[in-house]
Specification:
- This protein is α/β, with parallel strands linked by helices.
- The chain is globular and about 45 Å long.
Length: about 230
């Protein structure tokens, strides 16, 4: 009887649904539905980091300078495009602009709101889905919200892009990089940490790196740093 009971209990355990190791999609959907980043008057709002002029205008300037440097415009993949308040300013400097986000309703909203011949929107999970092909990937304050497991998966996919322009919110001064977090609205800053792709456990191999922007915001602690990585 005991053996049979154990067998039945084992069978019940195996029927339990297997949960994904990260709740990113659900967390990001909650951010927008519950207005966790503010913007109560907007359907979708990606936070002060996507809207305050002191933060976004310098970023738009330096990325525009990079994109217009090339004789032939680049195909750009915006991985984590959010409400597209920043991306909409860069589309005209590209051959094609592919904007990606994990929240389906957000992508549907963007498709209805922003149109251009060279602009595409896709709902993708950049941790597990195949990424679009392109010359340059933009990741603007995206990885800082993700667990190390997710970031490692994304890093393994970034080698297909010749250029990666990464923006991360990090502590000022020295800090221990890449302390792990659970994916969600928060970032590593509360742990006095930040993402460094070149450090362990990511060890992103690049041919060159160049920091092009560092913003010390009066509205947020820490520094918002943008770096261009050349992978090949």
């Amino acid at each position: 009887m005991i053996a049979m009971k154990n067998k039945e209990n084992s069978a019940k355990r195996t029927k339990k649904p297997i949960k994904k190791p990260w709740p990113t999609k659900e967390a990001m959907e909650q951010v927008y539905t519950m207005k966790l980043w503010g913007g109560y008057e907007s359907d979708f709002y990606s936070g002060i980091g996507s809207h305050h002029p002191d933060i976004i205008n310098p970023y738009i300037d330096v990325v525009t300078e990079f994109l217009t440097f090339f004789k032939n415009p680049l195909v750009v993949c915006d991985l984590g495009c959010g409400d597209f308040n920043v991306g909409k300013e860069l589309v005209k400097y590209t051959e094609k602009y592919i904007a990606v986000d994990i929240v389906k309703d957000l992508i549907t909203h963007n498709q209805r709101t922003f149109t251009a011949e060279n602009l595409e929107f896709h709902c993708l999970d950049i941790v597990v889905d195949d990424l679009p092909s392109g010359d340059c990937a933009l990741l603007r304050q995206v990885l800082q919200h993700l667990s190390n497991t997710e970031i490692k998966s994304i890093v393994s996919r970034l080698i297909k892009f010749k250029y990666v322009i990464l923006t991360e919110h990090i502590p000022e001064g020295d800090f221990i990089p890449n302390k792990d977090i659970i994916s969600g609205q928060g970032i590593r800053l509360k742990k006095q940490s930040g993402v460094d792709l070149l450090a362990s456990p990511f060890n992103f191999e690049v041919k060159a790196e160049k920091q092009i922007l560092s913003i010390i915001s009066n509205h947020q602690k820490g520094a918002i740093v943008t770096t261009i990585y050349t992978t090949f």
